């Protein structure tokens, strides 16, 4: 902060919600690992267990890391906007790479076992989400990270970027729920209705995914938790207003 200014802090409620989100996120990953390890034989790339890499990568990349990438503007409220932006892009980029590994795993596993691809609702929602997520990431980098984009283009694209960011996060969780259901029906169709431990564990994972989405969604949409603009950002947008609207700069006119 500036000299004499009190140290910048986050609202107490925000910190609590963020802490809960991270606890849920880690528990959700551990639960995915437990399901695959205890009931599905674990994970391995070159074997019949290759499929299991798919749910692990999707929960890690498309839910946990994507959710955390959305939270960086709330968590790093007082850091330079540029470095926060780069962290946002890097986390989404990492999520994309991990998700790509998960997509490759399921296609290779299907090919090895002679299972058809892309017929289920889960696969349609998943592929649409993945392709749109990649597109959103490329557009975000183009508009907000590369210096070429004009200020007015950025401000026109930003509402779309924000809406589709939250929408794709919601779609990712929805696709996971479809995937969990599909996996249970393939693997334990006959015993699922008897509340066997695997079914209960996988259902619990689904509930955690929804809870993670709700907590992250609450933090993102709460108006008074949005990132306050730093002094230099305010100065920039005032200069921009002056340039575009021909007003006299209110600060320099005294």
State the main characteristics.
single chain, 254 residues, mainly alpha, Four Helix Bundle (Hemerythrin (Met), subunit A), 7 helices, 0% strand, cytoplasmic vesicle, oxidoreductase activity, transport, Cyt_b561/ferric_Rdtase_TM
Helices and strands in order:
Blueprint: H1 12-39, H2 53-75, H3 81-113, H4 121-145, H5 151-188, H6 197-221, H7 231-245
Helix pairs in contact: 1-2, 1-6, 2-3, 2-5, 2-6, 3-4, 4-5, 5-6
Domain Cytochrome b561: 20-221
Keywords: Cytoplasmic vesicle, Electron transport, Heme, Iron, Membrane, Metal-binding, Translocase, Transmembrane, Transmembrane helix, Transport
Catalytic activity: monodehydro-L-ascorbate radical(out) + L-ascorbate(in) = monodehydro-L-ascorbate radical(in) + L-ascorbate(out)
Structural write-up:
This protein has one domain: Four Helix Bundle (Hemerythrin (Met), subunit A) (Up-down Bundle). It is built from seven helices and no strands. It has helices at 12-39, 53-75, 81-113, 121-145, 151-188, 197-221, 231-245. The longest helix is centred in the last third of the chain and has 38 residues, at 151-188. The chain is elongated.
């Amino acid at each position: 902060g500036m000299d004499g200014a009190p140290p910048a802090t986050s609202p107490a409620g925000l910190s609590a919600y963020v802490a809960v989100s991270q606890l849920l996120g880690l528990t959700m990953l551990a639960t995915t690992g437990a399901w695959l390890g205890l009931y599905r034989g674990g994970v391995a790339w070159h074997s019949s267990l290759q499929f299991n890499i798919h749910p692990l990568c999707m929960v890690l990349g498309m839910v946990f890391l994507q959710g955390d990438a959305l939270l960086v503007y709330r968590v790093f409220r007082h850091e330079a906007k540029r470095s926060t932006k780069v962290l946002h892009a890097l986390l989404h980029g990492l999520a994309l790479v991990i998700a790509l590994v998960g997509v490759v795993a399921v296609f290779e596993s299907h090919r090895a076992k002679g299972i058809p691809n892309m017929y289920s609702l889960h696969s349609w929602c998943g592929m649409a989400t993945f392709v749109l997520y990649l597109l959103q990431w490329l557009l975000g980098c183009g508009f907000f990270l590369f210096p070429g984009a004009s200020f007015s283009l950025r401000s026109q694209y930003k509402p779309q970027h924000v809406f589709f960011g939250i929408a794709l996060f919601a779609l990712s969780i929805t696709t996971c729920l479809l995937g969990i259901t599909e996996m249970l029906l393939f693997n334990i169709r006959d015993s699922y209705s008897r509340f066997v431990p695997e079914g209960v564990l996988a259902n619990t994972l689904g509930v955690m995914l929804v809870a993670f989405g709700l907590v992250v969604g609450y933090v993102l949409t709460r108006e008074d938790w949005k990132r306050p603009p730093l002094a230099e950002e305010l100065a920039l947008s005032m200069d921009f207003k002056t340039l575009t609207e021909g007003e006299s700069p209110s600060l320099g006119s005294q």
